[in-house]
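Step 1: inspect the first sequence and its C-alpha cells.
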Amino acid sequence: MAGTDVFRNSEFVREDVHRWLFEPWGGREIIGPKTEILAPGVAEARFTGGNLSLLGAGIGALLTPEKAPGILFLEDISEEVYRLDNLLIQLERAGRLAAAEGIVLGSWYECGESDEIRDLMHEYLGDRGIPVLWEQGFGHDPEALTVPLNVDGRLDASGDSPRLTVAGGHA
C-alpha cells in the first residue's frame, strides 16, 4: 500500500496510516462515513479476515485458520457479483462464516452495483444472529481506511450509530 499513488497523493490516507503506525490504538474507533448496520448486535473478538478472493483461495491450505472465531472483515476488488456469491459459498462450506462472531464489510471497489452486492451480503449474512456492518470504508477504494487485523476489538451495532473499537495495542 505504501508504494501506491493513493498513498502518495492522498493526505487522508497518509494521515490514517501514520496514526496506526505511530499513535496508541487502544480505544480508537474506526467508522467509515458510509457505514450502515445490516444486522444488529454486539461482538467482542479478534479482528480477522481480509480480501474475500484470497480467503476463498486459501481454504484448505495448512496455514489457513478456516474456522477461527472472531470479527470477520471482508472486502474485494474487481470481482463480478456472481464470483462474490461463489466465494461466500466457499467460506460458508468451510465453516468460516459460522465461526464469525460479527462481520464487517468493506469496499467492493469495481465489483458491480453497490445495491446488488449489498443485497447479496444481506442474503448470506443478515440472518445469522450476529452483528454485520456494511461499507466500513476499508479495502481497495482510493480513500480506504486502514483497519488492523489480529487485534481484539468490539463491534457494536445495537443502536442507531454503529461503533467499531480497537481494544488495545500500541505502535
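Step 2: inspect the second sequence and its C-alpha cells, then contrast the two.
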Amino acid sequence: MTRLIVWRHGNTDWNAADRVQGQTDVPLNDLGREQARASAPLLAALRPDVIVASDLSRAADTAAALAAVTGLPVTGDARLRERHFGRWQGLTLTEVAERFPDEYARWRAGDPDPGAEIETLGDLGERVGAALRAAAAAAAGGTVVVATHGGGARQGVGHLLGWDAAILRTVGSLQN
C-alpha cells in the first residue's frame, strides 16, 4: 500500500497578516523556513521515496527542506497550487469583506462558488486530487510526501476519498 503524506507549507507574512494568497507566489518568512527545517527530520524518519510540491515557492521551499535531509529531488506540480481566489488575491480578509460583501458572506457560509472569479471548490478538489493520485502512483507501494497548501490539501484529499461536499465543509484547512 502506498503511503501519501500531505504537508502544508510553512508560514508566510501574508498568512500572518490574514492576506489572501491564493495562487500569488508569496515566499516563506523566517518562521515558515524554521517550520520547514524543524519538520524535515521528522518526515525523513518516515523514509519517503518521492517528494512532490506545488510550484509556488512557499510549498517548493518547504519541500526543499526535506530534500536537503533526504537527498531526494523535489518534483514540482502546478496542479497542487492553492485555490485561485480571483479578485481577492492580495487583499486582507477585512478588505475582502468591505469590497465584496455579498461574495464574502457566501464564502463564509460555505458556498462552493462564491463568485469574484474564485475557483470553485469542486474544481479545486478535482485538480489537487488528480495531482495527489499522480504523486501516489509515482511511488506505488512506497511513501510519498506532498508539500502543498491548506485549502487545496483539504479539497484534494476529500476528493480522493470521495467525501461529500457537506462533510468537507466540516473539515478545517491545515494550519501553519
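Step 3: confirm your contrast with the notes below.
The domain at 3-168 is CATH 3.40.50.1240 (Rossmann fold). The longest strand covers residues 3-8.
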